[in-house]
Design a protein that fits this description.
By secondary structure, the protein is an alpha/beta fold. About 30% of the residues lie in helices and about 30% in strands. It contains four helices and eight strands; from the N terminus they run H-E-E-E-E-H-E-E-E-E-H-H. It has helices spanning about 1-15, 75-90, 160-175, 180-185; strands spanning about 25, 45-50, 55-60, 70, 95, 105-115, 125-135, 140-150. The strands form two sheets. The chain has a five-stranded mixed sheet. The protein has a three-stranded mixed sheet with strand order 1-4-3, covered by helices on one side. Strand 6 and strand 7 form a beta hairpin. The longest helix has 19 residues, at about 160-175.
Length: about 190
């Protein structure tokens, strides 16, 4: 009986005949900033806007793809804002609530998860796109940043693996933004306080 149960569990891992539950992802990206020979000072007011039409990223795939959606949690914008503010502090900026200060807004334009195939899942494809808009002294910077990730898998990823993949692709897009030399050059013009 134990052998039959073990074989069944293994088959469920490889085939998508076993139902995959819906999943809510706790978004917690990490923005990496490298040491720069630049001098960033001044105050910034930070906003994050979720421009997606839905919190859904897609489905976990398989034959039950209509019922196993992956969605982001309600704190997505707050989590992104916290990560962005930490990165800016590490760069040397002071974060302020004063709306009269120069403003940096991050727009989450896309965050997707796709598991192609119906009979079984061999890979998952993810993408993220963010836009960063900075307004200071009547001037504006606008940059778009995208990250894509394809992961080969032997079975449908676990909840923990999906969370790691979603946060990785979002972290990569945000890190690309704060590695953009044009954005960094613009941020150097922020008035010092």
């Amino acid at each position: 009986m134990k052998k039959v149960l073990t074989v069944f569990i293994i088959l469920c891992g490889f085939l998508t005949g076993c139902a995959l539950s819906p999943q809510q992802i706790d978004v917690s990206p990490k923005v990496s900033v490298t040491r720069q020979d630049r001098h960033f000072r001044g105050e910034l007011h930070v906003n994050v806007m979720d421009n997606r039409s839905s919190p859904s990223l897609g489905s976990r795939g398989g034959v039950y793809s209509k019922t196993n959606k992956i969605v982001t949690d309600a704190d997505t914008t707050l989590s992104i804002q916290s990560s962005v503010e930490l990165a800016l502090r590490q760069m040397g900026f002071t974060i302020t609530d004063a709306e009269s200060a120069p403003t940096l807004t991050v727009y989450l334009d896309r965050l997707t998860y796709h598991a192609p195939g119906v009979a079984y899942i061999t890979k998952v494809d993810l993408s993220a796109q963010v836009r960063v808009v900075v307004v200071s002294q009547g001037k504006k910077f606008d940059g778009n940043y995208e990250s894509k990730l394809s992961e080969r898998v032997l079975a449908a990823p676990s909840d923990d693996k999906n969370k790691a993949l979603v946060n990785q692709v979002l972290s990569d897009a945000l890190t690309r933004a704060f590695s953009d030399q044009e954005l960094l050059t613009y941020l150097e013009t922020i008035p010092q306080h």
